[in-house]
Design goal:
By secondary structure, this protein is α/β, with parallel strands linked by helices. It has two domains: 139 residues, Rossmann fold (3-Layer(aba) Sandwich), CATH 3.40.50.1980; 125 residues, Rossmann fold, CATH 3.40.50. 33% of the residues lie in helices and 20% in strands. The protein has a five-stranded mixed beta sheet. The chain has a three-stranded antiparallel beta sheet with strand order 1-2-3, covered by helices on one side. Helix 4 packs antiparallel against helix 5 and helix 5 runs parallel beside helix 12. It is globular.
Length: 317
């Protein structure tokens, strides 16, 4: 798990200017505008480097939709976002009020440069562009550690709280989330069912297990994985429908990649076929289609985590 070190630096610079001692009659003086100048910054050491950010930055460019929903929850202003494939619950950011800086994978560097940002927030999809983006302003990397999902989510959220002086609000919402996680774990243990998570992509499916990008279902919410040997991969482990029959999960959670990126939803037609009909999950009507925008595009934000909690809690009722 990567570690963040947050240091609040308050530097008070005192400069004294002596007036010229003309005719040996004039005393030394100090100009008012050079006294008690304060440089108030937050220094964050992250996985890709170090970001030194002025507190309460005004021009903020956000490339991570999870962080965008956290900023939205905290009622903090942003200047620019990549407007392609913004989740519908963040539709307000498609407005002309916000600058469009390209897409998640292809930032508009010229537009970002013209903004002269005080802060650029990125995550895994932009990691390879870190050096280039760093030339345009302070870059904060907030990628999630999937093996320690909730811990890295909390760290990222606390960093935002420090930068924007929202520590109290962050503490309160994280405490509330902790309480809900305890409750959902209680529900999961009482239900005693094993689950399989699949991503539907056109006519194919891939499976995700513990420690994966969707592994929060197992690792944080406490629902046991039907298969503990699923290969960890960003794109999941390619599986056939026969694999699902062999595993015979009690619950199947489905994320529709096509729907997440703006295509027609197709997961239900792909998943609920004659083979899957043989599983306990389908026989008991325990196949759940999760919000694809939240799970595939966002995640790691206060609003998206809350949606995840709500969806999984409902599946356990």
């Amino acid at each position: 798990m990567r570690k963040f070190t947050i240091v609040l630096v308050f530097i008070v610079a005192l400069f004294a200017l002596g007036a010229c001692n003309l005719n040996n009659n004039e005393a030394d003086t100090v100009k008012e505008d050079q006294v008690d100048k304060e440089n108030n910054t937050v220094i964050v050491e992250h996985e890709l480097g170090t970001a030194e950010v002025e507190r309460n930055p005004e021009k903020v460019v956000v490339f991570d939709f999870g962080m965008l929903d956290t900023l939205d929850f905290l009622e903090l202003d942003v200047t620019a976002v990549p407007q392609m494939n913004i989740p519908s619950y963040l539709d307000k950011y498609k407005n002309e009020e916000y600058e469009n800086v390209g897409s998640l994978k292809e930032p508009d560097f010229e537009k970002i440069n013209s903004i002269e940002p005080d802060l650029i927030i990125i995550s895994g999809r932009q990691a390879e562009l870190y050096d280039e983006l760093s030339k345009l302003g302070p870059v904060l990397y907030v990628g999630l550690d999937y093996e320690n999902y909730i811990e890295s989510f909390k760290e990222n959220t606390k960093i935002i709280g420090e930068i924007f002086e929202k520590e109290k609000e962050v503490e309160e919402v994280l405490s509330d989330i902790d309480e809900q996680i305890v409750e959902i774990n209680k529900q999961a243990s009482e239900l005693d069912k094993e689950a399989l998570i699949v991503l539907a992509n056109e006519s194919k499916i891939s499976a995700y297990g513990e420690g994966s990008r969707f592994g929060i279902i197992h690792d944080v919410f406490g629902i046991p994985a039907v298969d503990k040997d699923i290969e960890e991969s960003t794109h999941g482990m390619n599986v056939a429908f026969e694999y699902v029959i062999d595993q015979n999960p009690d619950i199947i959670y489905v994320i529709d990649r096509g729907a997440a990126i703006g295509e027609e939803p197709s997961a239900k037609e792909v998943v609920e076929n004659e083979l899957i009909a043989k599983t306990t999950a389908m026989k008991n009507d325990d196949i759940y289609y999760l919000d694809p925008e939240v799970w595939y595009l966002a995640g790691g934000g206060v609003i998206s985590i809350q949606t995840m909690i709500d969806e999984i809690a409902q599946s356990l009722e």
